Amino acid sequence: MRYSQYKFKFYLNASHAIYINGSMGQRHPHTWEITIHVLKEKEEFVEFSTIEKKIEDWMKQYQDKSLNEIAPFDKINPTMENCCDYFKESLKQILFGEGFILLTIEMSETPTRSYVINLFDTEDTSEQER
Asked: Sign (positive/negative) of CA torsion 116, 36, 58, 90?
């Protein structure tokens, strides 16, 4: 079976305040950049607009909002790492429903700072622990 790999970028305008040493910092805005690398079984034609719309529709719940006020970040510290981990799980399900496999997700809150999760690394690690 042959596969094709694609990269998508999405932008999310949302603010957050994070807890540092038990104290909540000041709320501040970001234009988050979310980059995903996916794998798709090779087909003659891939309708990108379908998957892009599904992801953008899911992200609308966070667009122009304070992450601290929206589940799960009303209970989880909305750090870049925690946001990326949560987005990974949600996007993985959306993508799988459309026949894509999530390979990596990168979430940036500034152009100079990103957090990256490589799903092959995490899956390989869990396999070795068994």
From this structure: negative
pLDDT computed for residue 1 by the predictor: 59
Which residues lie closer than 8 Å to 48 by C-beta, 6 or more apart? 6, 8
If you average pLDDT over residues 83-105, what whole number do you get?
95
* Residue that is written with structure tokens 């799903």 in the block: 119
Per-residue buried b or exposed e for 23-33, using 16+ beta carbons within 10 Å of the residue's own CB:
eeeeeeebebb
Average pLDDT score over residue span 85-106: 95
C-alpha atoms less than 13 angstroms from C-alpha of 127 in its C-beta half-sphere: 6
Residue 47, pLDDT score: 83
Q: Mean pLDDT score of the chain, rounded to an integer? A: 89
Please, is 107 exposed, middle or buried when counting C-beta atoms within 10 Å of its C-beta (0-12, 13-18, 19+)?
buried
User: What is each CA distance from 53 to 39, 57, 63, 91, 124, in whole angstroms?
Assistant: 18, 6, 14, 12, 31
Whether omega for the bond prior to residue 111 falls within 30 degrees of 0, making it cis, is: no
